[in-house]
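Exercise 7.
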Amino acid sequence: MNYSEAERNWRKPRYNFGNPSESAEMINNDSIRQALSAFLTIALQNTQQTPHPGSPSLIIAELKCGSIFPPAALILRQHFPTLFIGNSLVIGPNLSRDQIDQQINALAQCLLNEGCLPKWRNELLDVWADDQSIAAIERGAVRALGLVTRAVHLNAWSESGDLWVARRALDKATDPGLWDTLVGGLVGLGEGDDLALVRETAEEAGLDEQALAHRTPLRVITRMQRRLPEGFQSEDVITCECVLPLDVVPENQDGEVMTIVALPPNEVAQMLLDNVFTVEAGIVIAQELLDQMVRRDRLGQV
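Solution. The predicted structure, written as tokens, is:
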């Protein structure tokens, strides 16, 4: 198989934890591997939770697609009592897509008016059930209804072996001030994963599609499921990797990032262990650092 120069560069181990002979303070590779492996195991375990106790199911067109946050369910029972059958809120099954969208929007508007949503984002996402989109939903309502979302991430390495990471703005609605992957964001309504990555890369890092020309394919590494104060998160975490030339410097465009820096992997690893990354980014980056160690081991055996 013939690889481009960028692809060959990515397939090389990107990190350099240092030569122990140069400094007694350099991190031992085995210690890093063990610590990151333990970190990732715990992070994955902590993101495989069940919905809040007493969460009614959300059924749309005879498909279960969500688990409603109990405080939100209480409000919806008061305003839409005829939609509840037992412990399920049922929409359809004999409604058109437009009618379903209108009904779901009415639920979201009701929750907003009753103060049950953290913020109205004016962004539409797909409502997923059995890997198919069956409706549209306001982004701000997905956690209250426990709907599945899809989030794309990019691990971008520099040619010198540093990893580009970004610190979230202090006014972000979620995880303000925490560190993140260079690019990370939700897939919008009717938007493919690849297109979402291109859009998010332009918005968050100021890079065009050409910068991603030799990235690895997007892949789902986990479905996070977490109880949150505002509801239930069920999110497919999708990631890929690329190598950016030394003369390419990412620059945020949408105001949602306060700092973008390229850091040595040992520093990134320590930041992970200090829990200064978002949960999602922690999983994505820890998995990538461990994968890079495996690649180095394989090359060492050749």
